[in-house]
Amino acid sequence: MDERNLRDEIHVEFPAEPADIRSYAPLKLAYLGDAVFEIIIRTLIVEHVGGPVKNLHRRSSEFVNAGAQARLAAEMLEELSEDELAVYRHGRNAKASSVAKNADIHDYRNATGLEALFGYLYLMGQTGRAVELLKHAMDKLGMEV
User: Fold this and answer.
1) pLDDT in tens, 64-109
2) How distant, in Å, are the alpha carbons of 1, 72, 88, 125 from that of 120?
C-alpha cells in the first residue's frame, strides 16, 4: 500500500514546484496550521462526542481558541526540537494585523506560534509529530475530548 500523506496526494493532482518551507512567512504557516489543528481536533471530536453537530461545535470550540491553544503550546515547548522551537517563536513573534476579539494578546501570539508549528509540520509531512505533541500537551493539562 502506498503511504502518501495528504500534501503528497494534493500534489498528485495539483503539481507544485518544490519550495523551501523554512522560507515561508510565519503567518502563512499559521494560516495553514490553523486548519491542521482544527482537523485534528474535529477528528477527535467526531470520533468521541455524540449528539447533534451543535454539540460537536461547542466541544471543539473548547480547544480551538487562543486561550486553549496558548495553554497547549506552553506544555509542548519542552518537547520541541530546535527547528520546531524556531518555527514556533517566529509564529509567536509575527506581527498580525489584527487580534481575535475575545483573545488576550499574549494568548493570541502563543496560539499563532502553535498554528505556525502545526503548519510547518504538515508541510514537512510530519502530521504524526503534530498529533504526538498535542497528545503530550493534553495529557499534561488533563484535557480530554
Assistant:
1) 999 999 999 999 999 999 999 999 999 999 988 777 777 899 999 9
2) 26, 17, 9, 9
Among the options 2, 8, 20, 34, which is catalytic?
34
- Judge whether 76 and 40 are in contact, CB under 8 Å: no
The closest alpha carbon to 33, from 106, 139, 111, belongs to 111
Number of other residues whose CB lies within 10 A of the CB of residue 83: 12
Q: And the C-alpha cell for 139?
A: 495529557
Q: For the beta carbon of residue 24, count every other beta carbon within 10 angstroms.
A: 19
129 Cα distance to chain centroid:
11
Euclidean distance between CA atoms 114 and 130, whole angstroms: 10
- Asked if residue 135 has pLDDT above 70, the reply is yes
Alpha helix segments (H runs only) across the chain: 6-13, 26-48, 53-61, 66-76, 82-93, 105-123, 127-141
Whether residue 34 lies in the annotated active site:
yes
Pull the grid cell for residue 22. Answer: 523554512
**CA 18 from chain center: how many Å?**
22
